[in-house]
């Protein structure tokens, strides 16, 4: 059994929708998280933004996080590392982990700022499994919380352990 232990924090995650003034609509509207993220470099800092959209498709970028870019000491042709490591895509691929021979993914929830459903937490962090597939895996007991089968709507708490068994992914 190969177990991969990872830690997730949801304190920087945002609400699914935010009511705020849309300058283009000219009134207060509800902006919904598109779950798209973008990064902007600005001098030494790299900003991560969540892209929100109003009903009329106007976008608003909510600042989520700031990374410090690593100072580049030498710049030559062999060192073209433009993106510092911290800007890695925060999502994971179950397909890739499975290929690496990982049987179980053990996810420790370090913090949860707002009520967060198990299926939503997983679908925002895993890029190659849909929310519907995740709900199926939860139902089948391939995804468990604290070694127990729970519902997809289970609200995560700090120090919860999610076990994601990758052994039977053929159902996907
Ligand atoms: Zn608008």
UniProtKB/TrEMBL annotation:
Residue span(s) of domain RNA-binding S4: 116-171
InterPro entries: S4_RNA-bd (IPR002942), S4_RNA-bd_sf (IPR036986)
PROSITE patterns: S4 (PS50889)
The keyword Ribosomal protein is annotated on this UniProt entry: no
Top-level taxon in the UniProt lineage: Bacteria
Sorted UniProt keywords: RNA-binding
SUPFAM superfamilies hit by this protein: Alpha-L RNA-binding motif (SSF55174)
Transferase in keyword set: no
Pfam families reported for this sequence: S4
GO molecular function, one term: RNA binding
Name the record gives this protein: RNA-binding S4 domain-containing protein
Organism: Lihuaxuella thermophila
């Amino acid at each position: 059994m190969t177990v991969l232990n990872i830690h997730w924090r949801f304190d920087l995650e945002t609400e699914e929708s935010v009511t705020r003034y849309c300058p283009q609509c000219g009134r207060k509207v509800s902006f919904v998280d598109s779950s798209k993220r973008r990064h902007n470099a600005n001098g030494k800092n790299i900003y991560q933004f969540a892209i929100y959209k109003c009903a009329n498709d106007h976008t608003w970028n909510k600042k989520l996080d700031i990374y410090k870019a690593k100072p580049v000491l030498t710049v030559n042709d062999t060192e073209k590392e433009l993106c510092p490591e911290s800007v890695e895509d925060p999502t994971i691929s179950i397909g890739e982990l499975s290929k690496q021979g990982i049987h179980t993914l053990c996810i420790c929830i370090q913090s949860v700022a707002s009520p967060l459903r198990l299926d939503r937490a997983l679908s925002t962090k895993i890029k190659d499994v849909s929310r519907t597939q995740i709900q199926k895996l939860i139902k089948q007991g391939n995804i468990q919380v604290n070694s127990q089968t729970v519902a997809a709507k289970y609200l995560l708490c700090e120090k919860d352990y999610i076990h994601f068994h990758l052994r039977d992914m053929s159902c996907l």
